Each structure stands twice: as structure tokens, then as C-alpha cells.
Known about the structure:
Elements: H1 2-17, E1 22-27, E2 49-52, H2 53-63, H3 68-79, H4 87-96, H5 98-108, E3 110-112, H6 127-146, H7 150-167, H8 173-193, H9 203-207, H10 217-220, H11 229-257, E4 285-288, E5 292-297, E6 309-315
Parallel strand pairs: 1-6, 2-3
Antiparallel strand pairs: 4-5, 5-6
Amino acid sequence: MKRTFISLVILFLASVSVAARQIELTLHPAKAPKPRNKYQLLPKDKELSDSDALPLYKRAIQSLPKDSQRDQKIRQWVKTPLNKLPRKQVQSTLQQLKPTLQLVEQAARCNQCNWPPFDPEPLPQNLSEYRKLAYLLSLQARLQIAQGQYDQAVGTIQTGLAMARHVGKGPTLVQRLVSIAIAALMCGQLEQFVQSPDAPNLYWALQSLPKPFVDLTEQIVLESPEIRERPLLLMNRLDRHVAALQCIEALRLYAAVRKGKFPTALTEITNIPIPDDPVNKKPFVYSSTGYKAVLEAPAPKGATAKDAMRYQLTLKE
């Protein structure tokens, strides 16, 4: 009973993190980098150490000062538009927490994260603290994007996604739902990244991410039938977020070689694969008038309006 209750609580929190929004993005044409795999959103195998990430994450969590006001400020700053971000205050906060960030970066570049075996009674400790680490990484990426430090921002987002993968390797459904929430925070920073005028195109980096990014199928069978459907939808919604960002980067690629205009249909993009919506297993709904476009996906049957997705896109000439 306790495990199921906590699972539902974390499920709610994860749902809030990836709640559907109508998102307006202003894009700039951008060709693929050379080589096309120059940027990666997860560390390469050759960059990984044989160390265990879990002790490093625990040290990072222990290094976080107990300061609820600071935590609240960080969450507010993560939602603040880039042009209104108080850069000096953010920089000062990040500098104070530099030892924590260094430990997380080191942990994210470990090839294993050895969680304790599944125990139905005591829940994994400090899971909420991993979300605090994710907000801290999101803030660092946001500042780097605002400062035009795009390579550094990719590195920070990579660290966050690697941490999400580590948490998502845990034995419980709770851990994997927290992993989805962490990855969704990183995707939110990618939405900021793709709007920056000189930001490199991340189409191929997004293409190379694992699918599903977080796999819940093994944990779902341990849950009662009435709560299985929602976690699977959350799993697919995260993959849809990634796929939509990949479509957006495909549009930036197209505009870079086609006189700065959006295609009238996604089928006009023939030189690279365009992913389908992983939730509905159908192509994304798309329309365009040249410099403006809409990319969307409806909520699946039986879901709520929050499970729909809509991007309103404007292309800068």
C-alpha cells in the first residue's frame, strides 16, 4: 500500500513536469554541424569511467546547503525568460554551488549506477534531491544559453540527461518516474536552446537518443492494472517531447537551405527522417504559411487535454 501511494504521488509530480503547454518558439535557420555528430546529448562511451555514479550523486546531494529560499529562487529563475534572467545573481548562486555541480558532472560520466536491490518497504532515499540537482543543472544551462555559451550549454544538458538515465535505471517505478521528470526539465532547456540565433542544430544529437528514453515496461507489470496506463503515457510523452524537438530542428535545417522558409508539409523534408508522435504512433500534425508554422499532436483517446501538444513556430528572416 505504501509503495503504491508514493508511486501515485511521484506520478503526479512527474505529470506536472511534463504537462502539455501551448509553446511559442522563435526559430532561426541552422545547418547541421560538421561533423554531424559533433554534439551529443549523452556522454560517449569513450568518455565514461568505470566508477559507480551513485556515491558521487550522494555526495552531491549532501553538499547542497539546506536553503529553501534559494531552492525557490532557482525554480523561479528556471522559468524566467532569458532576457529577464538576473545574470549576476544566477552566476553568484551557481558559483556557490560549484562543488555540487562538479560532483554531478563527474557522476554523469560513470558507466554504471548501482542502485540497491528492490525493497518494497523503504523507498529510495533522496529522490526529491535529484530533482533539486536537475533544477540546478537547468539553471546553469539557461545562463549558458543566455550568454551564448552553446557548447557549454550542450554539456550541461548532457549531464542532466545522463543523470536522468542513471535514475531511470533504478529498480522501482518511483525512480523511473522521477527520471522522466528530470529529462523533461532538460528538454525544456532545449526549447530555449533552439531559439538562440547562433545555436548549433541538434537534429542528429536528438536522433541518437535512446528510445524509449526511460523504459517503464518491467516496473509496470508489478503495479495494479488501474495505474499502469498513466505511467506508460508519461513514458511516451517524454519521447514525444524529444521527437517534437527533433522535428523542430529538422525545420531549422530545411529553412537553412530553402531560402529561410518553412516547408508547407513535413513530407517535403526528404533528406532526413522525420519521427512520428510516439504517443499516437502517427505523424505530427503540421501546417505552415512560410514564416509561421504549427506542430502539434492530439491527446490520445481517453486522455485529458493536458496530454495534447502544440508548438507555434515563427521563423526569423
